[in-house]
Amino acid sequence: MNPKVLIIVSNANTIGPNNRRTGTFLSEVAHPYAEFEKAGYQIDFASLTGESPFLDALNLADDPDNLKFLIGKGWEKMHNAAKLSNVDVSSYDAVFVPGGLAPMVDMPETVELKKVIAEFYETNRVVGAVCHGPVSLLNVKLSDGTYLVNSKNIASFTTEEEDNYARPDVPFDLQTALTEQGAIFHAAKPWSANSIADGNLVTGQNPASAKGVGEKIVALLEAKKA
């Protein structure tokens, strides 16, 4: 059987004191989706509340993978995302969390999400996230009481990138928070492609890294099939 991937998305549509409009960043979901689709995987979506999620960066719709996501099955599936607590996560081989600013609103502390991420990781399944998506890894504790990110090689949106993007809007600095929980943080040049795999954990820095994250998740899943 082909692997099954669960994409978990935020339900937030505003962030910060000025109610900046946000959502899931289009290319950060569309580019990995394209890699999973190309590999022939079953792809399903879940959101934290089960309400229709929001997309950001629709101005990038002329990108081929983004456009295919919007007019193909991708956005339709995301729009109809199941509520995470209603999903039987045991049947999936990988979980992936795309970014955009939205996850910074509803993913830092959500207990159900942290439980799901820990379950995937501790059952030797693939966990992936990109840009602000690695906020989903924050505060995840494993059964031995340690933070999941402790001593792991991690990439996410960097302090330097945030300073020139949404510093007044975000509730905290993601790079700092991950590092404080023991992550070995890998920051590349701002807005350059930077994805990294540490065992079954795959993370990426920014929108340019989303395709690489998808490719690395596929490589890990294919290796498990061998």
TrEMBL record:
<protein>
    <submittedName>
        <fullName>Type 1 glutamine amidotransferase domain-containing protein</fullName>
    </submittedName>
</protein>
<feature type="domain" description="DJ-1/PfpI">
    <location>
        <begin position="27"/>
        <end position="218"/>
    </location>
</feature>
<keyword id="KW-0346">Stress response</keyword>
<dbReference type="InterPro" id="IPR029062">
    <property type="entry name" value="Class_I_gatase-like"/>
</dbReference>
<comment type="similarity">
    <text>Belongs to the peptidase C56 family. HSP31-like subfamily.</text>
</comment>
<dbReference type="InterPro" id="IPR002818">
    <property type="entry name" value="DJ-1/PfpI"/>
</dbReference>
<keyword id="KW-0456">Lyase</keyword>
<keyword id="KW-0315">Glutamine amidotransferase</keyword>
<dbReference type="InterPro" id="IPR050325">
    <property type="entry name" value="Prot/Nucl_acid_deglycase"/>
</dbReference>
<dbReference type="Pfam" id="PF01965">
    <property type="entry name" value="DJ-1_PfpI"/>
</dbReference>
